[in-house]
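$ run holo --ligand "coenzyme A" --emit tokens
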Amino acid sequence: MATIDTYRQDDERQIAAMYRRVFGPDAAEGNRLRWEWQYSRNPNCPPDGPQIWVAREGPTIVGQYAAMPVRVSVLGREIDGSWGMDVMVAPERQRQGLGEVLFRTWERHVGAALGLGLSESSYRLFQKLRWPNVGPVPCFVKPLTRRALRRPDWPMPVNRFVSWATLPYVRVVARARPLKAGVERVSRFGEEYTALWERLAATFTFAVRRDARYLNWKFFEAPHVRYNAVALKRAGEVQGYAVYRHLQEARGRVTLLVDFLADPDDAAGVETLLGWVDREARAENSDKIRAFCLHGAFRRVMKHAGYFQVKSTMEFTAKINAVEVPASFYEDTSGWHVTLGDSDQDR
Ligand SMILES: CC(C)(COP(=O)(O)OP(=O)(O)OC[C@H]1O[C@@H](n2cnc3c(N)ncnc32)[C@H](O)[C@@H]1OP(=O)(O)O)[C@@H](O)C(=O)NCCC(=O)NCCS
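-- output --
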């Protein structure tokens, strides 16, 4: 019978070995690179150490539940939340009930248990536990060049034909539009971003607290990726921000709009941020821009700005414990702000 307790420093080697067996050597290497930042340097890390539960059989570690603590605004109240991230059970111990015990241990200790970008096995387990399934988080793509609609699973002649047939449409969608407000590059998030969050928090029915400490940790201190950030400014006041990066994929170059914040009623402001990202993406020769976005008002602006919705694989589950929420809270997620920048999705 396994016992569950919290992580100790000398567990590191055994957990790293299990990680390699469950997720493979490349993922294990990525995990090693991120670990210190992801767990110990999180500004919400509890004083007694990272939020990690370990399943032990005698001296042997057979499972782990590692989570990212965040503050979450839920219906105008701020509570402790936790993104489940590196969850695993040793292959020879899977399908014997250990995962369920780990999931329940985590959930009992947190104000909001949150899972984003679930694997098939964890998605099924959340379903089995009957936790609210509020996903997937919609994925949006804005095409910028004729290569934008290529798919790695189509043969090249099909890709060429689709590129040719859609080119006139892509040209219209991708045309440059004037920016309606000021945009400035950001190299560090100052306290004005905490003030922005404080002003906007109550406009979302669900969102992770995006204050300066969180934003700097998440987007400027991460060891595995480099982000660009810009501020939306009017009359010297910060009224929003966007975080993005460019990368090469199998069938072309992509700009990821990783995270953003603005007043959902400020359509002109959000459009300005999107317009800036368009320019940057074009300057970097990106074929398309990709973003994940749950909030209804933001989604409308994106569609207006030439983004269209594609199939999303970013499943999302949330269970709020710290405050009472009505059943309708989980049914209507149009006031929830969740992006690719949440949890550890962009790795
Ligand atoms: C997810 C995981 C931690 C669950 O641990 P576990 O000990 O196997 O889970 P349990 O035995 O408590 O629960 C089993 C239930 O989980 C779901 N499940 C687990 N593995 C599954 C799989 N390979 N395919 C489909 N469903 C699966 C099923 O609902 C299953 O119920 P069933 O056995 O009655 O069909 C484990 O499968 C694992 O380590 N997976 C690989 C790593 C991973 O995907 N981590 C999650 C990252 S988001």
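-- notes --
The mean pLDDT is 96.
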